[in-house]
TrEMBL record:
The entry's keywords: Aminotransferase, Pyridoxal phosphate, Transferase
Species assigned in the record: Microbaculum marinisediminis
Name of the protein in its database record: Aspartate aminotransferase family protein
Family: Belongs to the class-III pyridoxal-phosphate-dependent aminotransferase family.
PROSITE patterns reported in the protein's UniProt record: AA_TRANSFER_CLASS_3
Keyword Transferase applies: yes
Membrane-spanning segments: none
A GO molecular-function annotation: pyridoxal phosphate binding
Cofactor(s) listed in the protein's UniProt record: pyridoxal 5'-phosphate
Length: 434
């Protein structure tokens, strides 16, 4: 049935587990079916693994590789900086240039600070919000992922049958070893419930509301019409800082991220991933009057590797491509073709599934007949069957995430999309109905 085999990867990961726990360096890489893979190189839309397979890649490292693997212009920019020094412990013109580019692209970005990872950017945004408002309470939503740090790793990634009724969203830690005290000033609400959030903000004691403006981690779920605007208004009215976590959507769903595409501007936003096409760059961007509070030094923000010059050169080259109109036009076209083709293939196979999100990041939810409105709406997704599908799809040369997300890059051309759709159809025929 399968044209590709992964025995070398399987053996290497197993052997490596004697030195690297689980054989992987992020929990998101654990337990992948049929095995976590070991790669040799990436090129355009393809990854080459140590079994000699060339796989069409829709993981894209969980988002960063918006221009595909090893794009010549980004690599050349990074090469150009390599001989000039790796870290200065001081400033370079590159970080100022990069900040200007972010500001030109992203509506909320009057000021920009670079950071080391998405998780760190979230930490900075929350610290800023608490410092500036002199309030402690932060609100997040069920199923929204904001990084793996103790303070925000709450109420995601747990079986749905453990959560209470929607009117009283459940706050639970998502990892063993997480300090419960870090959640003391965190409240968890159900997303897309306007009345719930607006009435909570109206109490006047909320420092910040943080959300993925479109839920991309749990499923491709859009805000209901008017929801983001209502949250925006309530925050403005009651002095609460609205934070959009654009670590996935930023520089991916359009040059200005979700905030530009959806037309709602937050006070602060966090970025990482697609901003530098694989180089470690993250950022907080936001309103001047908030961000400028960092100037006096009383709000701490550190990071040895922040604005690393090679990464900054790569970020500039990436953003220079993303502002060219044809970059996104092509991704819209090819991504839409892929979304429609996958939806048709599942329908033809007699399998209920929704395909929702943006052409550049969408989710296939097997088992749903209607798009979910929030985290709980995903409870009916048949995760085991979809995992079986992605494992079989890998055997047909296409690598897609088990949890349903598909990331698109500029190198997923019409031909690559057609090849992918043929693999999807073959896979569905191979595995047949349950
Ligand atoms: N926020 C969101 C919305 C994310 O998707 C992620 C990463 N998946 C993070 C924060 C954390 O970013 P990082 O993995 O770079 O720490």
């Amino acid at each position: 049935m399968s044209n590709f085999t992964f025995s070398r990867s399987e053996a290497r990961v197993r052997e490596a587990a004697t030195i690297v726990p689980g054989g992987v360096n992020s929990n998101f890489r654990l337990g992948v079916a049929p095995t976590p893979l070991v790669f040799e190189r990436g090129e355009g839309p393809y990854l080459h693994d140590i079994d000699g397979n060339r796989l069409i890649d829709y993981y894209l490292a969980l988002g960063p590789m918006i221009l595909g693997h090893s794009p010549a212009d980004v690599i050349a920019a990074a090469h150009g900086q390599l001989d000039k020094g790796l870290l200065y412990g001081g400033q370079s013109e590159l970080e100022y240039e990069a900040a200007h580019r972010v500001s030109a692209m992203v509506p909320c970005a009057e000021r920009v600070r670079f950071a080391g990872s998405g998780s760190e950017a979230v930490q900075l945004a929350l610290r800023l919000a608490r410092a500036v408002t002199e309030r402690l309470t932060v609100i997040k939503f069920e199923g929204h992922y904001h990084g793996w740090l103790d303070s925000v790793l709450w109420s995601n990634g747990t079986p749905f049958d453990q959560v209470g009724p929607e009117e009283s969203p459940t706050k639970y830690r998502a990892s063993a070893g997480q300090d419960p005290a870090t959640g003391e000033n965190l409240e968890v609400l159900s997303w897309n419930q306007e009345e719930q959030i607006v009435s909570r903000i109206a109490k006047g004691d909320v420092a910040a509301v943080i959300m993925e403006a479109t839920m991309c981690n749990s499923g491709g779920i859009f805000a209901k019409p008017g929801y983001l605007e209502a949250v925006r208004d309530a925050c403005t009215k009651h002095g609460t800082i609205l934070i959009f976590d654009e670590v996935i959507t930023g520089f991916r769903v359009g040059p200005g991220g979700a905030q530009k595409r959806l037309g709602v501007t937050p006070d602060l936003a966090t970025f990482a991933k697609a901003m530098a096409n694989g180089f470690t760059v993250a950022a907080v961007a936001g309103r001047a009057e908030i961000m400028d509070q960092l100037s006096s030094g009383h709000i701490m923000h550190g990071g040895t590797y922040n604005a690393q010059p090679v990464a900054m050169a790569a970020a500039i080259a990436t953003m220079d491509r993303l502002v060219q109109s044809e970059t996104f036009e092509a991704m819209e076209r090819n991504g839409t073709r892929l979304m429609n083709g996958i939806a048709e293939a599942f329908a033809e196979a007699g399998l209920p599934a929704t395909v929702t999100g943006y052409p550049q990041i969408f989710t296939v939810a097997l088992g749903l007949t209607e798009p979910a409105e929030n985290y709980r709406g995903l409870a009916k997704v048949d995760r085991a069957a979809y995992r079986h599908f992605t494992a079989a799809l890998l055997g047909n040369g296409v690598r897609a995430l088990e949890r349903g997300a598909w990331f698109l890059c500029t190198e997923h051309t019409e031909d690559v999309v057609d090849e992918t759709l043929a693999a999807v159809r073959k896979t569905l025929a191979d595995i047949g109905p349950d």
